[in-house]
């Protein structure tokens, strides 16, 4: 027996419209999944933070070129859409909205510093767009508040713990002087450094916050010495300020070890020192991926990327290579997530990232989880001798 359903005109029209709507939506989704994969890149290519961002940009672009030359991701090429934030949080937010709502990107990488990221991560999170975070401030990742935000770089606390371990356990120093700057980063980091030392039963003998543009640190370093400090720990990303810490120490003839932020081994420091020897006895938090072993060799993935990218860098690497490695890894993480998800659907991409275990990047190996958004392992951090720069990498600090 055949049952025929007779539909009245208005009902038929409604159902027909619904069916057409489904077909149109399906066709649109299919078209979206066959076109280029648009990745937004928020980077401060100009302004005071441009040196690191420019190096990261080399890694990002190189990874995109490699992937596209190999046929893309699931047969789809990557279209990289870059916006220069100039280190300005307001610009970063405006560009994030532009990338998400006008450019319809499937991923946002960046921004490249914590001040901008504190402003943009909530914006990107509200849109549900996957965001690969490359800033260290701990509040930037939270699986409940920002489920689509996954950190590629280490956390600030990992830096602090590594430096504290080196000062206390390796150098056997416990009379600590902390010098931070008055920026948001410097203030919060000096405070957290003090809290982490307190948890180990250590109270700094001297602590101060100074304007990053202050022209001399002689007064502060004299007070640190008078307080009996046997190690100075500066927590600032301001290269000029860090150089002035070293100059004050050297001019005073005080050979106290300095242990602190990675910026203290940045190549611009060299030109700011009164004497090259003022960089001696200085140790910085660094990375296993860009640290030479006892035989003067770098890890194989780092050496391979260096060899491949060297021609586009003019054959010379005169800046810290970990920035390139990290930029490269952000795109490779996006590639793996989209391949695993089989699409750019945000929920599927989130699940794919949560499922990564020891994903082998160049900068590090990454592990995420349902409640874990910080993928950088503690083992990826080492201490470096600050004045040992060679071809973008460093020597390990003495054990």
Structure description:
This protein has 2 domains: 37-155 and 303-379, Rossmann fold (3-Layer(aba) Sandwich), CATH 3.40.50; 157-293 and 383-395, 3-Layer(aba) Sandwich (Rossmann fold), CATH 3.40.50. The protein starts with 8 loop residues before the first helix and ends with a strand. The relative contact order is 0.12. With 399 residues, it is an alpha/beta fold. The chain is globular. The strands form 5 sheets. Strands 2-1-3-4-5 form a 5-stranded parallel β-sheet, sandwiched between helices. Helix 3 (89-102) runs parallel beside helix 4 (114-127), helix 5 crosses helix 6 (184-198) and helix 11 crosses helix 12. It is built from 12 helices and 15 strands.
Q: How many DSSP E strands?
A: 15
Task: Give me the CATH architecture of the largest domain, please.
Answer: 3-Layer(aba) Sandwich
The neighbouring-strand order within the major sheet is 2-1-3-4-5
CATH class type of the largest domain? Alpha Beta
Number of domain units: 2
| Distinct helical segment count | 12
Helix proportion: 40-55%
Summarize the main sheet.
5 strands, parallel
Percent strand equals 15-25%
Q: Can you tell me the overall shape?
A: globular
Kindly identify the CATH topology of the largest domain. Rossmann fold
| Mean pLDDT reading | 91
Q: What is the C-alpha radius of gyration, as a whole number of Å? A: 25 Å
Instruction: State the fourth-level CATH superfamily of the largest domain.
Output: Response regulator
The string of secondary-structure elements, in order, is HEHEHEHEEHEHEHEHEHEEHHHEEEE
């Amino acid at each position: 027996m055949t049952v025929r359903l007779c539909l009245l005109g208005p009902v038929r029209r409604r159902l027909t419209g619904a069916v057409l709507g489904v077909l149109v939506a399906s066709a649109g989704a299919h078209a979206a999944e066959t076109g280029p994969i648009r990745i937004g890149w928020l980077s401060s290519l100009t302004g005071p933070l441009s040196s690191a961002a420019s190096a990261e940009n080399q890694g990002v672009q190189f990874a995109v070129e490699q992937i596209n030359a190999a046929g893309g991701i699931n047969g789809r090429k990557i279209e990289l859409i870059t916006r220069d934030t100039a280190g300005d949080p307001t610009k970063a937010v405006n560009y994030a909205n532009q990338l998400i709502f006008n450019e319809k990107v499937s991923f946002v990488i960046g921004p490249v510093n914590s001040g901008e990221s504190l402003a943009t991560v909530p914006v990107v999170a509200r849109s549900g767009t996957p965001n690969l975070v490359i800033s260290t401030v701990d509040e930037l990742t939270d699986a409940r508040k920002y489920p689509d935000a996954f950190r590629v770089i280490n956390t600030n606390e990992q830096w602090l713990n590594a430096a504290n371990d080196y000062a206390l356990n390796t150098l056997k120093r416990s009379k600590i002087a902390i010098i931070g700057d008055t920026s948001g980063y410097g203030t919060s980091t000096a405070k957290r450094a003090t809290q982490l030392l307190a948890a180990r039963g250590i109270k700094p003998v001297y602590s101060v916050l100074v304007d990053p543009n202050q022209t001399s640190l002689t007064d502060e370093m004299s007070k640190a010495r008078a307080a009996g400090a046997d190690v100075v720990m500066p927590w600032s990303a301001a290269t000029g300020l860090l150089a002035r810490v070293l100059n004050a120490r050297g001019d005073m003839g005080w050979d106290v070890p300095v242990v602190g932020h990675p910026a203290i081994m940045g190549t611009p420091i060299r030109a700011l020192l009164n004497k090259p020897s003022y960089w001696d006895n200085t140790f910085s938090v660094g990375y296993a991926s860009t640290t030479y072993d006892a035989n003067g060799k770098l890890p194989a993935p780092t050496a391979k990327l260096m060899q491949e990218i060297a021609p586009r860098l003019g054959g010379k690497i005169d800046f810290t290579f970990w920035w390139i490695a990290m930029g490269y890894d952000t795109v490779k993480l996006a590639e793996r997530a989209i391949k695993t998800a089989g699409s750019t659907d945000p929920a599927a991409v989130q699940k794919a990232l949560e499922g990564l275990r020891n994903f082998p990047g160049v900068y590090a190996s990454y592990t995420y989880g349902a409640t874990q958004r910080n993928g950088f392992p503690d083992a990826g951090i080492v201490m470096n001798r600050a004045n040992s720069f060679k071809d973008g990498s460093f020597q390990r600090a003495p054990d």
